[in-house]
Write a structure and sequence with these properties.
Elements (H helix, E strand, L loop, with lengths): L3 E2 L6 E3 L4 E3 L1 E3 L2 E8 L1 E2 L7 E2 L6 E3 L43 E6 L8 E7 L18 H7 L2 E5 L4 H5 L15 H16 L5 E11 L1 H9 L11 E5 L9 H6 L11 H21 L15 H14 L22 H4 L10 E6 L17 H12 L3 H11 L16 H14 L4 E6 L2 E2 L5 E2 L6 H4 L15 H18 L19 E4 L4 E3 L4 H8 L8
Helix pairs in contact: 6-7, 10-14
């Protein structure tokens, strides 16, 4: 049992903004629900004003309102409780005033200057929160790695990314406000993290899924330059896959001259179109558009959803994304190219084996004959089954062939493309990984989307279905140590786990598994074959 200490005057963090009163749990200080910015609807964030006295920091702050879920069945509001066993989720009071962060550290005002991890939660750009997944908790990683862990809430969906800029200068940044909040949080870290024993010159920005997408977006934002030193993208690379010609020739993706301006303009126009249609759905006009700041969140989100449907756009988690703003956010690296200012930022990037294709509950694989297995695979993979199997066995010789249909392409292909293009572009190293674990739950399933997070944060015990194998503690040690090493030195290599950079000449890929090992075996042919056998999960 963890021992908690909190007295009227302990622990107190003396930040540049004012004093904060948190609590100590065993050897780790916790400061929760720290406000880092304020903003009205569709306004850019403003740093918090310094205060007198002491502010409480013992409870998590508000999370951003979430888009209403579509019922799965008649009378079912969505978010079925039984799913919390496979993927535990926490929900919390919501408010548009959601600019809060949390800090875990073993140091207070002692000049320790330890590495800092700023973790950005997943959920696309529409959902999630800093506490949505219990494994986000930073206590164990801060304790084990002697690092400072920060995570945060920020504006999402229609209050963070609905582009209304076609209605005038007042709304210029409306399509990028969620990212602007994150930049303001990073500024808070620069001002205040030394009070928690953190080194403001050694900040690693990291995130999974939508959080990884936010890391990629920050690297495209001049306002974020100098606020971080390293980057980690977990299952969060953009879904558009550049061609090999673009990657190898250093065109479009890699250059920092004149990028694909036309594509950025088209990207911007699409988001502006959604904003205009949302205004129409609310019954507003050019003259009355400012009333959009007074309508309820429910009205706003429902109008935006109707607008997206009418335009044939995605709804739900994928409804919005950062919209380009001249001079502030030029657009994704796929359309604008990497910015030269990020050349010296080391990058750790990877995916899980299964992501969203892990759900093949076939029980004990030994219960099937080889011919029965191939028949199942042919039903899933079609005429190219034999060729796919040949590539799968070459890359994963120790895995059952049934897992060939669990190999992800949705995230793995753009992640591989980003690693290649980044390696050709940057002067800093790129490190690539795949969590290729088979979890022995329900007879064995490939590690899924979000499945690596508990290993990074040393919180595997928080997810019951992860605690089913003898390898768990060993793999948790390897993964968390690699991430801590990357935060400290820019390299994830550790004793017993040599890990070389990914380069054009040597595309090293680390398989994190029961027996972790680095390989040069390319999985590109396998990914191409699999991509031709299944419809895209998302456009």
């Amino acid at each position: 049992m963890k021992k908690v200490i909190r007295t009227p005057d302990f622990p107190i963090a003396e930040t540049a903004d004012g004093k904060l009163h948190g609590f100590k749990q065993d050897e780790v200080f916790h400061f929760h629900g720290v406000r880092y910015a304020t903003a009205g609807r569709f306004e850019m964030p403003r740093a918090v004003e310094p205060w007198e006295g002491v502010k409480d920091a013992k409870a998590y702050g508000y999370i951003c309102p979430l888009l209403p879920e579509e019922p799965h069945e008649e009378g079912d509001p969505g978010g079925a409780p039984e799913n919390s066993f496979e993927m535990p989720h926490v929900y919390w009071p919501m408010s548009e005033n959601c600019q809060y962060l949390n800090v875990w550290t073993k140091h207070l005002g002692d000049g320790a200057r330890r590495p800092v991890l700023v973790w950005l939660h997943g959920g696309g750009f529409c959902s999630g929160s800093s506490i949505e997944i219990p494994a986000y908790d930073g206590h164990n990683l801060a304790d084990y790695g002697d690092v400072v862990v920060v995570n945060l809430n920020h504006r999402l969906n229609v209050v963070g990314y609905l582009d209304l800029s076609s209605f005038g200068e007042k709304y210029r940044y409306s399509g990028i406000l969620g990212m602007a909040d994150i930049v303001e949080a990073l500024r808070w870290v620069q001002r205040n993290i030394a009070a928690f024993g953190g080194d403001p010159d050694n900040v690693t920005i990291a995130g999974q899924s939508g959080g990884g997408g936010k890391v990629a977006a920050l690297m495209q934002m001049p306002e974020a330059d100098g606020l971080y030193a390293k980057a980690v993208i977990e299952s969060g690379a953009l879904r558009k896959v550049p061609t090999d010609a673009e990657v190898l020739q250093g065109e479009k993706v890699c250059v920092d001259g004149e990028p694909l301006a036309a594509e950025s303009v088209c990207e911007k126009a699409a988001w502006q179109r959604l904003g205009r249609r949302t205004v129409e759905e609310l019954g507003l006009s050019e003259e009355t558009v400012d009333q959009i700041c007074q309508v309820s969140y429910q009205q706003l989100s429902e109008a935006a959803t109707r607008a997206a449907v009418s335009l044939g756009m995605d709804t739900g988690m994928m409804m919005v994304a950062p919209s380009p703003v001249e001079g502030y956010y030029p657009g994704s690296y796929v359309t604008t190219g990497f910015r030269r200012e990020t050349r010296e930022i080391p990058l750790l990037i990877g995916t899980t084996l299964g992501e969203f294709t892990f759900m093949h509950y076939l029980g004990n694989k030994d219960a099937y004959t080889e011919e029965e297995k191939k028949e199942i695979l042919r039903g899933e993979l079609g005429d190219q089954t034999e060729e796919i199997l040949k590539e799968f066995i070459r890359i994963y010789p120790e895995k059952d062939i049934l897992y060939a249909m669990s190999v992800d392409t949705l995230f793995r292909r753009p992640t591989a493309a980003m690693a290649r293009s980044r390696a050709a572009f940057a002067t800093a190293p790129v490190y690539a990984y795949q969590m290729s674990l088979i979890v022995p739950y329900l007879g064995g399933i490939a590690l899924w989307h979000c499945g690596e997070i508990p290993y990074v944060f040393r919180n595997v015990e928080m997810e019951p279905m992860q605690c089913t194998g003898d390898y768990t503690e060993k793999l948790q040690e390897e993964v968390s140590r690699a991430w801590v090493n990357f935060m400290e030195t820019g390299s994830p290599a550790a004793e017993g786990l040599p890990w070389d950079p990914y380069t054009e000449e040597t595309p090293n890929l680390m398989f994190l598994d029961e027996k972790s090992a680095q390989t040069l075996e390319s999985d590109q042919r396998l990914l191409e074959l699999l991509s031709g056998t299944r419809p895209p999960f998302l456009a």
